Amino acid sequence: MQKITRDQIVSKAVSLLQDGTVSAVLGWRQGEFCYDVTPSVFNTAEDIEANFVWNDFCGANFSKYLVSKTKNIDGKLLVFLKPCDTYSFNQLLTEHRFNRESVYVVGIPCEGMVDISKVKAVSGEGIVCAESKGAGLSVTTIYDENPKEIPYAEVLSERCLNCKSKKHVAYDELLGDEGEVIDSARFDEVEKLESMTSEERFAFWQGELSRCIRCNACRDVCPACTCEKCVFDNPNSGAESKAPTNSFEEQMFHVIRAFHVAGRCTDCGECSRVCPQNIPLHLLNRKFIKDINSFYGDYQAGAEVGMRAPLVDYDLGDLEACDVFERRDSE
Amino acid sequence: MQVNEYRPLIVAFCCNWCSYAGADLAGNNRLNYPADVKIIRVPCSCRVNPMFILRAFQRGADGVIICGCHPGDCHYTSGNYYTRRRMALLFSMLDYLGIERERTRLEWVSAAEGAKFAATMNDFAETVAALGENKRLEDLRCKK
Amino acid sequence: MHKDNEKMKSEIIRRSGVNPSKCMRCGKCSGTCPAYDEMEYHPHQFVYMVESGDIEPLLSSESLYKCLSCFACVDRCPRGVEPAKLVEAVRLSVIRQQGANHLTANDIPEMLDPDLPQQAIVSAFRKYTK
Amino acid sequence: MQRIGVFVCWCGTNIAGTVDVAAVSEALKSEPGVVFSTNYQYMCSQAGQDIIKDAVKEHNLTGIVVCSCSPRMHEATFRKTAAAAGLNPYMVEIANIREQCSWVHKDMLTGTEKAIILGKAAVAKVNLNTPLTPGESPVTKRALVIGGGIAGIQTALDIADAGFPVDIVEKNPTIGGKMAQLDKTFPTLDCAACILTPKMVDVAQHENIRIFSYSEVEEIGGFVGNFDVKIKKKARFVKEDICTGCGACVEKCPMKKIPNEFNLGMDNRRAVYIPFAQAVPKVATIDPSACNMLKSGKCGICSKVCTAGAIDYKQKDELIEEKYGAIVVATGFNPISMDKFDEFAYNQSRDVITSLEFERLTNAAGPTQGKLLRPSDLEHPHTIVFVQCVGSRCDACAEKGKEYCSKICCMYTAKHAMLVRDKYPDTEVYVFYIDVRTPGKNFDEFYRRAVEEYGVRYIKGMVGKITPEGDKLKVQASDLLADKQLHIDADLVVLAAAIEPDKTARPLATMLTASMDTNDFFTEAHPKLRPVESPTAGVFLSGTCQGPKDIPETVSQASAAAAKVIGLLVKDKLTGNPCIASPNELMCNGCSSCERVCPYGAITYIDKEFPQPDRTVAVRRVAQVNPAVCQGCGACTVACMSGAMDLRGFMSSQIIAEVDAICK
Amino acid sequence: MRRISLYSLDSLFGEISKSMTLYIPASDNAGGAVYTKYEDGVEYLNTLNTVKSPKNFFFPHTEDLMEFKLQGKNIDILDIRQESEDFAVFGVRGCDVKSFDILDRVFLSDPVDSYYATRREHGVIISLACTKPSETCFCTTFGIDPTEPMGDISAWMTESHLYLQPVTEKGKALMSKIEHITEACDDSEVLAQKDKTKNILSKLPLKDLSTDAFGSGKTKELFDSPQWAELSQSCLGCGTCTFVCPTCQCYDIKDFNTGSGVIRYRCWDSCMFSEFTKMAHGNPRLTQTERFRQRFMHKLVYYPENNDGLFSCVGCGRCLSKCPISMNIVKVMKSLGGDKNE
């Protein structure tokens, strides 16, 4: 389904490596199964040609890796960024988290990535093959040798179904055509929650957050969470905690985490992708984004480098805190 | 006053230059408000970290109110503008999680507004008392 | 303000998207209006009368149809009030009250007169098709 | 572990009347860290303070909690007491059990209960207090004034008179600014040059003042008391110290058709020029874009005629580095461009002019030697229309114009109208206004005189359109009070153009890390209480760079700024507030969030080396707080996600401890 | 062997929960399964594995150990344990059952962890044989037979019936309580199902994964392998693998200040966290590579070294499906095991 083929990317990576433009390549490495790909640094053309993958499961956002992977690099690191990844890239640059000169960005178009758990929900366990075929995936399992065809609409991840932009906001070079910012329906779920009663919302979130196992995957994958030391790991912060000991801790962790990335979150959706418990964490981030848009004017974190995030900015005529609800109730 | 009547626990963060002085003025003028309200002095309302607010709820507070200088009057010129954004977003988020929105409040009280301070605290204490104990954002370990 | 006036005012404000309270009463709209002498109520009065809810006299005034919709007042208003849009909104109120005496796009060609300036055709179309 | 002493004050019956003080001191005795607890009638009295001092010595106290009146009353008192007893003054915390307890609660039971809780919170905080020492920094006793208009001149003179050296940086070849271009001044109608030029001479002759004319500020570093400034002195190709200002070079210069900016282009100057007769410094300047010698090496006449030998075609820009203790911004204003106001035909007719151009037209030293002649045909105008509020008071969203009132236009227009009617009584003068705003001493009287004594015709209504037709200007406007359309055939139209901050202000603000509003006016530290200071410590505001002002206001603000500068420069050392932000570099991400919310520009970043777990060294960008500039608001502490930024005296851990104690 | 019709599953659950609390896999409303206390309305979800492993029953995610009460300057120490009631867990797969052996060796060897031991004594495991393993399953690598799931009672589910066979005394005691609603039967259907499952097992992609390169005595060979850096390069340092793992047993003991005292509790910890085993001097494992290596060396070398060659992995496949970057023990074994796994 992806418009750019693996071969195009591989030949681009190999040529940039060979002409000395870059000294290493950050890409996806083939795993055990057809769907498990691991982000990896490639140093040789042979390795790239043999093990580089590009398919419907290459969802990982590479921007955050640049913070650590460019630290001790000689020359430039080549990174392939999908449109949504480029927003995180810009946001990290805005916050001086890595050196732009150490990176060579090749923008690649993305047609949306597949959520393997959605595939399994349809196909069942035992997947041995999942290939792109027409407008869907063709899936074979050990239980059924006849391939089952599943339309993309059923298996694309939530964030891709509500894709906010197919436009790259940062790159040195672009493969394929430039896309557009999309008027997505990504706030619909938030609105649905807002229209519930307070009791219903409380019950909803209790149900969702009670599954949290505090593995910190959401935080550790988040491109906005690049603190040298996270408050939740710091015994002196007053918020340190290793475990979801009770519902308060669960709420505290997720509210503070969302607040810390508010105005900086680009809505890349990695938090929800990696959550082993499928907690819809993007609904917290999107709430902040939606509020920021409606209170302070549309703002897309990472749209440009150097933008002033809404929480480190103000306007004399800003909405009063007490009018927040009046405004929403009248909507 | 009945002995066993439920009384809420209210934490008020007051900025040193306006609201804390407003609270002092309420005292000077002997304007009553419930003893449920306990004030913590901060240099500016922008010193109030959302973590402090959640911490208060965890420890058993039933309501948290932040008071600062009126917009435009901040001793530090812009501190309360940041507070306004931070709290607008935080309160909206807490409401989104199903926490009663009446438990949090942001008020502008100047050093001259002793009466407003007392009235605000009376109103807030009454509102929070009507909600009853804070059950949705509590840490049972701290309620013994 | 009387309830009916209030209602009509809010209706006109909603329809026009104009906020008459932004007006600082400088009168530049009238000063710039090419149809001033034809009008009973002048653009600045339009704004003022809508703002104060005194809309009844406007509805029956010929002024409504004297406005050329040239938008000079819109262009020049220092406060961004856009009086012409208000005039148009009031005009619409009258038209809607009268019922469907609309023009359709198909009616236009036969009314065309080669001497008519293009702008007039467009503005007439805008005026009568609502 | 601290050794804390608790001192509960009765305040006579003020506290003891509603709070059982003995119960409070007893209850606090068992709090962690408390080794001594007592109560006394008046803790702030000498006897009360002695109790504290004795207890510090006897019990080796490391911290003190006083349960008494508001810290706003006696915190300073008890800090001094602690210091006298050998304790760090910042080891004292006050529990406010009077204003916020005994005075507002009537019931002894609840009052006592609350007093105990407030006391516990104070104890919890003191347990985490650390001794704080205010930072000190030296003060360079020299001031820099940026801008040499009346604001800069006045500020510089006042500072210099107080005995401190002052440098004025002026981008033009002469100081004097806009006021030097004016004819008469309202409301007294004395001539601008007569009152300004003596001041300019004072400046030139003052032993404490240096003038860097034809110069610009290139770079500003440092902070209050210690600014490092680089000033670029542009090459004027004339040796300033040798030139006598005789004007021989000007007279002989063959390049005669250079638009004269001092007269707003209404006449011409030479390639070598002195802007006006009373210029300070009175030296010639060669315009490199017009001089043949500099462009092509062919000419050199001025050099030949200069008997002093002051001409130097090889002169280069010069960079001056200087240290300053304080910086005053006096960058002034300009009328806005009229290009977007097509309806007023400014670009179509030379007879539509701005008010500043009108000043030059009526000035005896102006292009017409003070005779009011219209630019197009140098005829005497018989009908003059003045249009007020051109580009002022516009909608914030409008593409042209400014949202604010320019403040000075009503008065100078009245002045212009009056002067015309005075000199040329046969002239018809119309003033189209929206509102006439004349607050100020003798201002409204002045305006009334224009109407009543001089017969100026004030018409309420904005001019809609001006159309040049033949040698006339057709002015179309609506007389709102008469409700009729006016069509006036005018000979001259004068537009009261809005004023805006000078274009150099924005880059300067960036260099100073001083804040500006959306209109590019400098923001003051407090709109009411600190109107002449910028939020950036050591930076002061003088004149119209802060907002539209007339001359008297500008001069008073200039003197006020000078007073503030003098107050700073008389200090040998600056003692900071010790309750300031301080970053934990190990946790700092260098993300710039704190820098963005700091109203004082106190935060900067450095690249620093840190040893890594794998024994390599990594360079990281980390925040630094300048203790002389930080005021301790704490905005940065919340903007900091990692919690690397904390506020001394109000540390997160201390506030959390208070929260915990209150909620126990 | 006894059996009960699947139509009567609820009555079986009802009967068990009369005498003890019963936990069964149920939907977590997010596409996964979670052990849920059985009561009216809780529906059994026939799933391969729960997201969180059943180790939670014996070694809970968080557990209060004791409490210190503060009165002025006095401190009282209180034992606040509550676990004294019997409970049963239904539907535990063979891999997870095996994980209890691995945990037992840690917690029940001297000194015995009394918190764990008490829970272990009170818990009855009703296992369930696998019929539809996933591509991520590799329990056979560790000698586990998923068709013979063991526990206190082994169970098999066919299309019509649930078959039960007690294994331990505890199992027999529970069987006697449900004897009246079950019927005696032979094991022919169970055997048929086992054959069918084994046929599937032989088709699993990871069926040939070998442990030959690992185990006791391999420390020197593997510790300094350059491959650790490569394998760990994209590891996020989150605790997902550890927290879904049935055999990870590391914990941290922390104090929570309640304001009026302190609750001492323990909670799962992860060797992948940068704060893990942080001591006064700092952290012995400074980089993510070292932390990553620790996790797999522990499972594949150190643990077997101390426990008669038993590996600390049961091949349940949870980490394979949950790791955000798809790095896991299988990739580690294949990479370090070299040719043996190719």
Sheet-strand content of chain D, in percent, reads 15-25%
* Helix content bin of chain C: 55-70%
Briefly, what CATH class of the largest domain in chain C? Answer: Mainly Alpha
CATH homologous superfamily classification of the largest domain in chain D: FAD/NAD(P)-binding domain
* Class by alpha and beta content of chain C: mainly alpha
Any idea how many domains of chain D? 5
> What is the 3D form of chain C?
globular
Assembly of the depicted chains? heteropentamer
Structural class of chain D: alpha/beta
Report the CATH superfamily of the largest domain in chain C: Alpha-helical ferredoxin
- Can you tell me the CATH topology of the largest domain in chain D? FAD/NAD(P)-binding domain
Question: How do the helices and strands line up, and which of them pair or pack?
Answer:
The complex is a heteropentamer of chains A (331), B (144), C (130), D (664) and E (342).
Chain C lengths: L2 H14 L11 H5 L10 H9 L4 H4 L3 H4 L5 H5 L6 H16 L9 H4 L6 H11 L2
Helix pairs in contact in C: 1-7, 3-7
Chain D lengths: L3 E6 L3 H4 L4 H9 L4 E7 L5 H14 L3 E6 L2 H14 L7 E5 L1 H5 L5 H19 L9 E3 L4 E4 L3 H12 L4 E4 L14 E2 L4 E2 H14 L3 E4 L2 E9 L2 E8 L14 H5 L5 E2 L8 E2 L2 E2 L11 E2 L5 H5 L4 H5 L12 E7 L1 E4 L3 E3 L16 E3 H8 L20 E8 L18 H15 L4 E6 L9 H10 L4 E4 L2 E7 L2 E8 L4 E7 L1 E6 L1 E3 L3 H8 L26 E3 L9 H19 L3 E3 L5 E3 L9 H5 L5 E9 L5 E9 L9 H5 L5 E3 L4 H11 L2
Parallel strand pairs in D: 1-2, 1-3, 3-4, 6-7, 6-18, 7-10, 18-29, 20-27, 21-22, 21-27, 22-23
Antiparallel strand pairs in D: 5-30, 8-9, 11-12, 12-17, 13-14, 15-16, 19-28, 24-25, 25-26, 31-34, 32-33
Helix pairs in contact in D: 2-6, 3-4, 6-19, 7-8, 7-16, 13-14
Chain E lengths: L1 E4 L3 H11 L1 E7 L5 E5 L24 E10 L2 E6 L7 E6 L1 H14 L6 H9 E5 L25 E5 L3 E6 L2 H10 L4 E2 L3 H14 L17 H5 L3 H6 L7 H5 L6 E7 L3 E8 L19 H19 L11 H5 L6 H9 L5
Short summary:
The complex is a heteropentamer of chains A (331), B (144), C (130), D (664) and E (342). With 331 residues, chain A is α/β, with parallel strands linked by helices.
Describe the protein's architecture and organization:
- The complex is a heteropentamer of chains A (331), B (144), C (130), D (664) and E (342).
- By secondary structure, chain A is α/β, with parallel strands linked by helices.
- Chain A contains 14 helices and nine strands.
- Helices cover 36% and strands 14% of the residues of chain A.
- In chain A, the strands form two sheets. In chain A, strands 1, 2, 3, 4, 5 and 9 form a six-stranded mixed β-sheet that branches. In chain A, strands 6-7-8 form a three-stranded antiparallel β-sheet.
- In chain A, a hairpin with a 2-residue loop joins strand 6 and strand 7.
- The two termini of chain A are 39 Å apart.
- Chain C has 130 residues and is mainly alpha-helical.
- Helix content of chain C is 55%, strand content 0%.
- Chain C contains nine helices and no strands.
- The longest helix of chain C has 16 residues, at 83-98.
- The mean pLDDT of chain C is 84.
- Chain D is of the alpha/beta class and 664 residues long.
- Chain D has five domains: 4-126, 3-Layer(aba) Sandwich (Rossmann fold), CATH 3.40.50; 136-234 and 317-331 and 503-575, FAD/NAD(P)-binding domain; 235-315, Alpha-Beta Plaits (2-Layer Sandwich), CATH 3.30.70; 333-500, FAD/NAD(P)-binding domain (3-Layer(bba) Sandwich); 581-648, 2-Layer Sandwich (Alpha-Beta Plaits), CATH 3.30.70.
- In chain D, the strands form twelve sheets. A five-stranded parallel β-sheet of chain D has the order 10-7-6-18-29, with helices on one face.
- In chain D, helix 2 (21-29) packs parallel to helix 6, helix 6 (108-126) runs antiparallel to helix 19 (652-662) and helix 7 (150-161) crosses helix 8 (192-205).
- The two termini of chain D are 21 Å apart.
- Classes of the chains: A alpha/beta (331), B alpha/beta (144), C mainly alpha (130), D alpha/beta (664), E alpha+beta (342).
- Chains A and E meet through strand 2, helix 5 and helix 10 of A and helix 8, strand 11, strand 12, helix 10 and helix 11 of E.
